[in-house]
Design brief:
Number of helices: 4
CATH class: Mainly Beta
Number of strands: 7
Order of helices and strands: HEEHEEEEHEH
Helix content: 25-40%
CATH architecture: Sandwich
CATH topology: Immunoglobulin-like
Strand content: 15-25%
Shape: globular
Number of domains: 1
Strand order of the largest sheet: 2-1-4-5-6-7-3
């Protein structure tokens, strides 16, 4: 009986490993789409350095060392940031969405993770549940902000110059 079970499990493993087009569910982010704030149209981010620190599962875009904030200061622009990963058959799929509020002052920006019942919550928790951070105001990590803020500012300047 044990030998039969072992052979069956081994066969399943070999079948799974041999399936073409299967990509790990925890693939890295391959694209970010940012909209809102001062942007007149959404922007696509594919810079490898930014994507490297924007992995949905590692959450390096969040500054966990600071805990959460009660709420951000009033008047900050809100950007919707969508993280995409590559799935089977090389298809891109939206996997996670946050709201980013950059602070124009020297203070850190904020990232809001949607709460239960809010738009994008059900998408996000299918990827990862962050019980201590979902539905709360989180600080953006300084390393992520150093990379993403200039991209947003440059796109806004370019879009407003063209209009």
């Amino acid at each position: 009986m044990k030998k039969t079970l072992f052979v069956f499990l081994l066969a399943l493993l070999l079948i799974f490993l041999g399936m073409p087009g299967v990509v790990s569910a925890k693939s890295p982010s391959v694209k970010i789409i940012i909209s809102g704030g001062g942007l007149t149209s959404s922007i696509e981010v594919t810079d490898p350095q930014i994507l490297g620190i924007s992995n949905v599962w590692t959450g390096q875009f969040l500054d966990r060392s600071r805990g959460t904030a009660k709420e951000p200061p009033r008047g900050l622009r809100r950007y919707e940031v969508s993280f995409y990963i590559r799935v089977a058959d090389n298809e891109l799929k939206k996997k996670y969405v946050v709201y980013y509020y950059p602070n124009p002052a020297t203070e850190p920006g904020y990232i809001y993770l949607p709460a239960k019942g809010e738009t994008w919550y059900s998408l996000n928790v299918r990827a990862i549940i962050r019980d201590e951070q979902d539905g709360k105001w989180n600080y953006a990590s300084p390393a992520w902000e150093d990379l993403i803020k200039p991209v947003i500012a440059g796109a806004e300047a370019e879009q407003h110059q063209g209009s």
